[in-house]
Specification:
188 residues, mainly alpha, 66% helix, globular, binds zinc ion
Amino acid sequence: MLLTQELVSRLWADMAAKDGFRVRRKRKSALMHIYAAGLSTIGVCSGKTFWKHMVTTTARTIYVPFTPGSMKSEFSLLEQVVVLAHEMQHMDQRRSMGVFWFGTGYALSQKIRCRLEVDAYRAGQTLYARLTHDRIAPVRLADKLKHYGIEDDLINGYALKRFRATNRKIDKGYLHGAAEDVWEALVG
Ligand SMILES: [Zn+2]
């Protein structure tokens, strides 16, 4: 699918309106400065990576280091769409677990954090495949988890297994979780 600046900008706006979340620039947010400090204490990436390469989601807001639809950022248009599915999956997790249990589990348990991130990356993984007819290597996806303070055993075991299994399901046209909503919005 050809992603244009207009299409990506509209997609973010449509999803935000439909799902009831806001999109804000990360740099401008005081809350994100607090998050940056908190995340670095649990070993989740900090510094330049956090501010420039990571999108961060709270209960009702997605904090982005780019303007959706703009090409003047470290995120390509494709990456802006894939990351939207990832963050919307996190919002779904919050809704089903409750904000308290999501936050506590994410912060205090590497195992839970690993499961939540793998689940969100699977949304991006399946959407990427649908958009490009290509696959992201499971090892590359698993490598990303190293930025989240997750131990190698979980990454090389649980995470890698899930990403491999997901790539096999893609052969049958599978879209994971929020990837389905994003895809519908793109083609609908
Ligand atoms: Zn995530």
